[in-house]
């Protein structure tokens, strides 16, 4: 298994990125990631507003990692085999920032220990659910460079709590080699990421990449550990992200459910489809929509 260290990372996804490693389809790799604060918050009270002046940029993502044979028009399927967070995670909240910026005061850093599958939150044991916040590929030329803080068609900072061990992320390939990068691991995060962060931690992530040749969706698709497919769409507003997500799911299903009309798919989506918020705190917000697990066992990407 190839090991890809955290000494090479990006702060933006672009159309022209040089890889730091190369994987063959089907080859497994362990990817080491730093946290979204570049690992500088180590103790309660660490001054993030001062320390961030000395880090190279936001939301570092380890990579890029080239996948042999990947070409524009393909889909890169990234299976998340395992996520092992470090023994502590950091959070920082501050006034005026995030979905609760009108409620919190000042700027506060807290660091929490992680052990035995739980975070010690002031004496309360919260079971962890490690997930990947940032995962994406090189952008299309027309979209230019996009900061790792921002989600878009290439993936990026989707902050989807379903990107856990056992999930597969399907990303549309826009450049030769795909150029995968990932980071911003959270030991725990709720839908919305309302205080602008999850429990941010460095981690090791085991992945295996496969190629689906000559076929791609416009937006990233996540198959969770239970087998539910969800389409993730990002936009300036929740209304627009939700509109994109429900339309993208309908089209995804229409291409795969032979014999079912568009009207019938719309009815199915209204009965057993769930339109959800992934995050509301990035430069673009993200909504996802999928059909509940077990309803369409025959569904494949």
Structural class: mainly beta
Read across the widest sheet, the strand sequence of neighbours is 1-5-18-7-16-19-20-22-21
- CATH architecture label name: Sandwich
What is the C-level CATH assignment? Mainly Beta
DSSP E strands, number: 22
Number of helices: 3
Whole-number radius of gyration?
Answer: 19 Å
Query: Whole-Å distance between the termini?
Result: 26 Å
Largest sheet composition: 9 strands, mixed
β-strand percent reads 35-45%
Helix content: 10-25%
Regions with little confidence, pLDDT below 50 for 5+ residues: none
Shape: globular
Count of domain modules = 1
CATH superfamily descriptor: Acetamidase/Formamidase-like domains
- For this structure, the CATH topology is Jelly Rolls
> Helix and strand succession?
EEEEEHEEEEEEEEEEEEEEEHHEE
* Average pLDDT over all residues: 98
């Amino acid at each position: 298994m190839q090991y890809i260290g955290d000494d090479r990372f990006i702060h933006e996804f672009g159309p022209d990125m040089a890889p730091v490693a190369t994987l063959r389809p089907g080859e497994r790799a362990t990817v080491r990631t730093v946290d979204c604060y570049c690992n500088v918050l180590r103790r309660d009270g660490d001054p993030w507003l001062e320390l961030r002046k000395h880090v190279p940029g936001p939301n570092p993502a380890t990579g890029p990692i080239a996948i042999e044979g990947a070409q524009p028009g393909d889909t890169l399927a990234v299976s998340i085999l395992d996520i092992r967070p470090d023994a502590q995670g950091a959070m920082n909240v501050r006034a005026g920032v995030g979905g609760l910026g009108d409620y919190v005061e000042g700027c506060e850093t807290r660091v929490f220990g992680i052990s035995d599958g739980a975070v010690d939150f002031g004496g309360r044991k919260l079971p962890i659910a490690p997930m990947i916040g940032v995962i994406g590929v090189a952008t299309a030329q027309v979209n230019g460079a996009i900061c790792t803080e921002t989600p878009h068609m290439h993936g990026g900072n989707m902050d989807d709590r379903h990107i856990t061990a056992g999930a597969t992320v399907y990303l549309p390939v826009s450049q030769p080699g795909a150029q995968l990068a990932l980071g911003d691991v959270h030991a725990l995060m709720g839908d919305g990421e309302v205080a602008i962060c999850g429990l941010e931690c460095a981690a090791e992530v085991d992945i295996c990449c496969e190629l689906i040749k000559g076929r791609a969706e416009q937006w990233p698709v996540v198959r969770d550990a239970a087998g539910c497919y969800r389409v993730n769409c990002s936009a300036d507003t929740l209304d627009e992200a939700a509109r994109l997500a429900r339309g993208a799911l309908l089209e995804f299903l229409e291409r795969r459910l032979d014999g079912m009309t568009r009207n019938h798919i719309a009815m199915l989506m209204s009965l057993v489809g769930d339109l959800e918020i992934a995050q509301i705190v990035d430069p673009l917000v993200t909504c996802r929509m999928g059909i509940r697990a077990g309803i369409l066992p025959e569904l494949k990407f």
